[in-house]
Structures are given as structure tokens and as C-alpha cells.
Amino acid sequence: MTKYIHEGAIVGMGSLGTALLSRFDKGDVIGVRRTDEDYFQQILESRILLLCMKQGDILAWLDTHSGNLSDEQIVISFGAALSLKTLRKHSNNQVTLVRAMTNRGIARSRQDIIYTSEKPLTTPHLASIQGLFEQIGIAKYVGVSKDEVVDKETHKACDMGRIAFFLEHYQDALIRFLGYSLSEATQSIKQSLRAILDALESGEDLNVIAQRVASRGGITEASITEMSGVSTLMNLGMNAANDKMNELNNKYK
Ligand SMILES: NC(=O)c1ccc[n+]([C@@H]2O[C@H](COP(=O)([O-])OP(=O)(O)OC[C@H]3O[C@@H](n4cnc5c(N)ncnc54)[C@H](OP(=O)(O)O)[C@@H]3O)[C@@H](O)[C@H]2O)c1
Fold this sequence. Notes:
Rossmann fold; ProC C-terminal domain-like fold
């Protein structure tokens, strides 16, 4: 087996690439930017290439570089909604292609990573990928051509952003309507989140938690009743997420 200088190279140092690199043990993995003078050399010297560019850039990269890679190298695409079939159409050699998704792309904590491949991975390839991923998260190989599992994971990766967005507006409302300071509003949200998490972990459902803390005809209930339109907005948001996923799937078929 060839000895590679780098076990992994993250190609594309944007939002995801930077977050991923910060989790790896120093030295094992490098970050590759398109402006790097030794760009091509870094690619050829790395066993596993983690493509963290926008979808169109990943496909263009495969068109240009896949023919120069050895069959001992592994290409892992993190592009949302890029199926293995699409990735192969842009790879003109037998390089091993893997499609991965982080569960919490932007989280700084250890990330769950789900990945799938076109053919069963060889034992050395599987060992290399697991060895690399276990530094940053809990890696789960879901088997061959499980694009639908990775698509589902892509939706899950959006949860954190959506919930943070909701809370940002909630925080803003606390400040504007109830006169909280920013730190009071943040503190109150943190306390509530901790209490909700404790209750969820002890097996309570969200609707039970909401009812348990809202007395009938009381102050919490007044705002919950008024905010019932939120569920309509949630439906619209989830439909928009589905539409976007379908649009990307069709665009990069
Ligand atoms: N952000 C997330 O949390 C997240 C989570 C899961 C999956 N993803 C997926 O990850 C991919 C990247 O998302 P992102 O949010 O990180 O995008 P981003 O912030 O726009 O980063 C993309 C980076 O790729 C670079 N790039 C483009 N072509 C390149 C090339 N040929 N060689 C080297 N670098 C190149 C870009 O450089 P320039 O600035 O020079 O163009 C940019 O720094 C997307 O396909 C997305 O679906 C993202």
C-alpha cells in the first residue's frame, strides 16, 4: 500500500471545510485552498480527499482531477443532494467514491457522520475512512448506494440552523415586548432549553412539557394560543426545505 504524506485533505476551506479541519488531530489532515501554489501536489499526496465545495464546484473538480487519482485514493463528497450516480458521471476512472453528510455540519462539537458508497468498500478503504472520521465524530457506514439515507441526514443537518433561527426571533421578542436586556433574554432561553432537555431526556413529550408549565387560562397559555400560526409557518418552512432538496437533486441528476 502506498504511503501518503497526508491521511486526508479537505478541499474547499469555506464554512464546512473550516469547521471540519478544526476537529482533526493536527498534521493528519490538511486544508487545501484553490489559491495554494502546491494545489495539485497536495491532492496527489493525500490518501482521502474530502470535497467541501459547493455542488457545482465538486462536479467541476471531479471532471478535472479524478482522472489523475490512483485507485488507492478515496474521494468523499460532502455536497448536499449530490448522488453517487451523479458523482460517478463526473469521475472518469475507478477512484473510490464515497458520499458523506455530517449530522451537524456547523457544530463545533463532535459530529455524527453518515456515509455510503457505490460498491462495498474494501477492508483497507473502510479502515482508512473510519480511522479518519473517528477523530471528529461518530461515523456510520450505511452500506451501498444509500443516497436516500444521506438525503435524510442532510435534512437533519439543517435542524440546528432552523432552531437557532426560531430562538433568535424569540429572543428579539423578549427584548422588544417584555423589556428584557439581551443578557436576561439569553439567560432565560438557556435556562428554558436546559429544563426542556432534562424533561425530554427523562422521556416527556414536547406537548406534555408545554401543557405542564402552562396553567389553564393563564399567561403562558395566552401567548401559546396567539402563536398557533407558528405551526403553519413551520409547515411552509419544511415544504421549502423539501422543495430545495428536490430542486438540487434534479439540478445535479
Ligand atoms: N455548511 C455546512 O454546515 C454544510 C453541512 C453539510 C454539507 N455541506 C455541503 O458542503 C459544501 C460546502 O458548503 P459550505 O457551506 O462550506 O460552502 P462555502 O462556505 O461556500 O465553501 C466552499 C469553499 O470551497 C472553495 N472552493 C470552490 N472550488 C474550489 C476548488 N476547486 N478547490 C478548492 N477550493 C474550492 C470556495 O473557495 P472560494 O471562496 O475561493 O470560491 C469556498 O471556500 C456544499 O456542497 C454543502 O452542500 C455544508
